[in-house]
């Protein structure tokens, strides 16, 4: 772990983190001194009232820990709205968003759809964070079509959206040792939380290892994240879609690029006050914990439930093919006060050195299709 020199939390935030650590410690003790990392990550992010997403701290924007694409510019949501508009010609005008952040993406999509003359009939938001739900309700107070849901509906036709949702789903960790693959979990030693490896039941281990393309070829000491919770979420979502599409934007790789020998420490990252680091035990409940998405496994989950793989591509290709440049040019370059911030945001969204290549877009569909212009950058063959 790197030596962390990060901004100190407030006394109230530190007290909340300490309370969560006590809750995690109690769970470890109740389970014989060890819990899977996925359970630790679930508690750190979602423990009622104390977890990062279920507690009360601000998460997004300048006062939070990280910034997402919709926070950078409304052009992201406006571009996505044009994709949604094309799908609305083939399915009901309903939207369903998971983890809607501050509500900016919903606002930008709904605003653009109104301007296109294709307003949404409904916009459901499944949000686990009470603090973010309050911010969304304020942001979307002028959109009566928005409803908040506590869980996934029993059936759905329309367009589902998840922007940086899959990366925040708890992952299990596997570590390759000379005695075989072990599951890396969390224990407590010397008054501190720490990693601890244990054997995994053979049948369960075999299922987890199916996500790795060539586990036998990986070196000893290799640590890999596997994503059964994200896989289960995607299967649950895809199983309720009768007609429509699911669009996911996130950072990640296809499996053959994800599980490389040189990526021996995995992709687990934490975000605290706009600082990125690799210690998941730093101030539990006050920082985000994420892992890159295995898009091969995500696509498999959709295909297993009868969805079609409509598109897998980079964020840059998706936004450029969906009409982002034309939307930018609706603001005159001569109007520098408005144009330059927008152009800078577009550069961050599309540059290979920024978000353009690291972030990918996966579109799964049932009884709908995408226009040829949008799929010309398709990379599904790389999955």
Write a structural description.
- With 383 residues, the protein is of the alpha/beta class.
- The chain has a domain at 69-168 and 229-258 and 291-382: Rossmann fold (3-Layer(aba) Sandwich), CATH 3.40.50.
- Helices cover 35% and strands 24% of the residues.
- It has 13 helices and 16 strands.
- The chain has helices at 11-30, 37-46, 69-72, 74-88, 104-115, 130-139, 202-209, 228-240, 255-258, 295-304, 315-321, 324-328, 336-350; strands at 35-36, 94-98, 122-126, 146-149, 156-163, 172-177, 180-189, 192-198, 223-226, 241-253, 269-272, 275-277, 288-290, 293-294, 308-314, 359-366.
- The strands form 3 sheets. Strands 2, 3, 4, 5, 10, 14, 15 and 16 form an 8-stranded mixed β-sheet that branches. Strands 1, 6, 7, 8 and 9 form a 5-stranded antiparallel β-sheet that branches. It has a 3-stranded antiparallel β-sheet with strand order 12-11-13.
- Strand 11 and strand 12 (275-277) form a beta hairpin.
- Helix 4 packs across helix 5 (104-115).
- 45% of the residues are buried.
- The mean pLDDT is 94.
């Amino acid at each position: 772990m790197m030596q962390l020199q990060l901004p100190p939390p407030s006394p109230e935030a530190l007290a909340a983190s300490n309370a969560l650590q006590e809750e995690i410690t109690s769970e470890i003790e109740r389970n014989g001194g060890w819990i899977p990392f996925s359970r630790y990550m679930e508690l750190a992010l979602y423990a009622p009232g104390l977890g990062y997403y279920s507690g009360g701290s601000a998460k997004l924007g300048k006062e939070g820990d990280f910034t997402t694409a919709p926070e950078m510019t409304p052009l992201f949501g406006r571009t996505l709205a044009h994709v949604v508009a094309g799908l609305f010609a083939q399915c009901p005008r309903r939207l369903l968003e998971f983890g809607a952040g501050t509500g900016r993406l919903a606002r930008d999509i709904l605003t653009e759809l109104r301007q296109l003359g294709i307003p949404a009939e409904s916009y459901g938001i499944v949000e686990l964070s009470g603090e973010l739900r309050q911010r969304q309700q304020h942001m979307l107070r002028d959109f009566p079509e928005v409803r908040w849901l506590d869980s996934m509906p029993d059936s759905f036709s329309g367009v589902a959206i998840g922007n940086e949702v899959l990366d925040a789903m708890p992952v299990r960790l596997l570590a390759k040792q000379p005695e075989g693959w072990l599951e890396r979990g969390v224990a407590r030693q010397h008054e501190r939380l720490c990693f601890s490896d244990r054997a995994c039941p053979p049948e369960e281990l075999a299922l987890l290892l199916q996500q790795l393309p060539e586990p036998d070829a990986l070196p000893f000491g290799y640590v890999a994240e596997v994503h059964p919770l994200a896989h289960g979420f995607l299967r649950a979502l895809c199983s309720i879609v009768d007609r429509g599409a699911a669009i996911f934007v996130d950072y990640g790789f296809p499996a053959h690029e994800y599980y490389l020998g040189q990526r021996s420490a995995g992709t687990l990252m934490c975000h605290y006050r706009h600082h990125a680091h690799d210690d998941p035990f730093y101030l539990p409940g006050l920082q985000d914990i994420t892992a890159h998405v295995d898009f091969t496994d995500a696509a498999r989950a959709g295909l297993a439930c009868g969805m079609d793989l409509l598109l897998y591509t980079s964020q840059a290709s998706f936004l450029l093919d969906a009409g982002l440049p034309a939307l930018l040019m609706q603001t005159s370059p001569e109007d520098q006060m408005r144009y330059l911030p927008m152009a800078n945001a577009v550069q961050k969204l599309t540059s290979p050195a920024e978000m353009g290549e690291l972030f990918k877009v996966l579109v799964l569909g049932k009884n709908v299709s995408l226009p040829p212009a949008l799929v010309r950058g398709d990379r599904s063959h790389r999955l």
